[in-house]
Amino acid sequence: MFWKIRLPLILTFFVGLVPIVTFFLTTRVPGVSFIRDHVEQYMVIIAGFALLLGVVNVVQGNIKKIEQRKPGWPFSISLLAGLITMGVFGILSGMKVGPFQGILAAPDGSMTPFYWMTKNLFNPLQAAMFSLLAFYIASAAFRAFRVRNIDATILIVAAFFVMLGRTPMGEYIFGWLPGGETWMPKMTDWIMAVPNAAAQRGIIIGAALGAASLSLRVILGIERSYLGSDK
Amino acid sequence: MSDLIGVWVGALMTLCIFSFLYKDNHFFRFAESLFAGVSLGYYIGIVSVQTLTPNLITPLRTDFSNHLHLLIPLIIGLNLYTRYIPKIAWMARISLAIYIAYYVGINMVQKLQGEVVPQVGSTIMNPIGGRITPIDNLIMIIGVLSVLVYFYFSIEHKGVLKPVSRVGIWFLMLGFGAAFGYTVMGRVSLLIGRMNYLFIDVIRVTSQHFGN
Amino acid sequence: MILEKLVNIDRRIVYLLIAVGTIIPILIPIGFPVSTTPPVESLFDKVESLNSEDVVLISFDYGPTTAPENDPMAEAMLRHCFSRNIKVVVIALFPIGGVTMAGEAVATVTAEFPNLTNGVDYVLLGYKDGAQAAMKQMGVDIAGVFPSDQYGTSLADLPLMQTVRNYDDVDLIVSFATGVIGEWWANLINAQFGTPVAVGCTAVSAPKYYAFLDSGQMIGLLGGLKGASEYEKLLTTSYPALNEVYNRAGTYTATKGMDAQTVDHALIMIFILFGNTIYFLIKRREKKLEEA
Q1: 3-state secondary structure of C172
Q2: Cβ <8 Å between A16 and B41
């Protein structure tokens, strides 16, 4: 019970206090700065280990999928092939073995194997996957965006102002009016800087208070869901 | 030559992803699985080369006695992986508690000192005046207060709270409309980048290679 | 019936129209003019006020997913700094491609300024995990987070880093960000250390950051492709020699991208108006049928 629950909660409390205390007490209290420097340096390293936790999960899941011949199992092979190749290239790049001289271009400008895979597989796949969103937003704008009430009307009017004002379209459409070329961009600036900022500020303050109270609950051990189940 | 092959591999992967727009197919699913695998492999490479090697492995290897304290993050980091060994999975909670506690502590001070205090501070201002028009400050105060009233769900919005909450919704709709406009801009930009790659970069590299 | 057919039009036709609306302006540039806005002008003026004794810390907090927006901003900022001989320290905190974007941008721009020396005029420190922990520790000791640069050279051997120990030695932090890391520079680092912060963000994040801009936590904001194009315009107006770079055929710039952006915005507005017109016509017809 102590090792499984109480010790993690005690550690949560003391480690959670470190960034709070060190935010206000910096170099004035030598003991505090010693703890802060080491804890922050350690966290950079621990974050590296934590980031790779997900990799183990994915590898386990896909190996199981291949073993059990679940639907779509051939694609698990391509996933693992990409993961292992890129991962091995990365580790060899760190060891600077043979042609693996780093993760970016070599000093003479030539491509290292890791950089070749980054530039010609990682970058295009990442970019293409997210660029699909442009098509979806266009489709949603046509099929789902309906002005059913006053609130939706305000939303669409603001959206139109921004879409017109943030491109030269607004200047061309209203250019025939006296001072019309600058009217639309200025109106858009005002919408962003005043009513939009006010709304975003309200959301920021509300969300920040909620997040701060949740953080306090975690530090005080009231919120324990991050520890998982007791079994 | 590797540039030419590379750019055509990139173009092929892009077209495999775009093929989903017509309908789901094996080319898309192959590219999607490769996307997931290569992304995770990239993580492995980056973390090992950029963080673990210079900050942990190299100091321990070159000057072990002066960097003994680095065994602490090494043990805490490796302890995270005990969650995959059922008999000692509980030990991972210790490392998890330390990791989460630190970032939760940062989050708390970030939210209060970095968001609540400055945002409230810059709202409480002289209501007469503004950067663009003379009524900007007044609109800002009304907007922030009405939005906060809208988000206060602990009591029913009736009486004087109802119209104030209504005004808050209007401000939120203005904000969401502006956000929608900017979201359109953001998403379209990503597509512009990909189309530029397919129709300009691929053609340029190909024509350079064939000396045209 | 025809109204129902129109409202249920195959989505692939919509996709095709967007694709064509994007491709044509890329192949046949239109050359729409760009007008500038105060948030971008504010950042430009701040950099204009710096000189060769000043240091700008540039953080690449984005990846290939938002490179079309953030790359032009980052390159424009690097060109601006190098044109004024401002010293630049480059880091990356975004795990999904940040260091690659940083390496490519630095390689591209430093090739245009052959008189620059790595380690003296600029350094590329690379990527570190832990984002907030790294950001906080850099406020005390940059070498504690980045013991060496991207190429393995110890910070003790880099002349620039002998005078840049922490944020006290940095005059401006500029983050090019895709996610929350941009606002962390404002609500964590500016809040604790007071160092001026500016953010070049993807358009999706920009509306939120106007609140930080208004409160003074950010001194400038480049929002999306439009923000990048505005910075390019200010840069090429003040430094005409850079027009050669921006007008080079085949080079992707934010200004060129705004052509396609404008056409696509027009298309999406037409889709919204068209969809709602059909919706109201269907509603009116249903109302008439009910009354009848």
Answers
A1: strand
A2: no
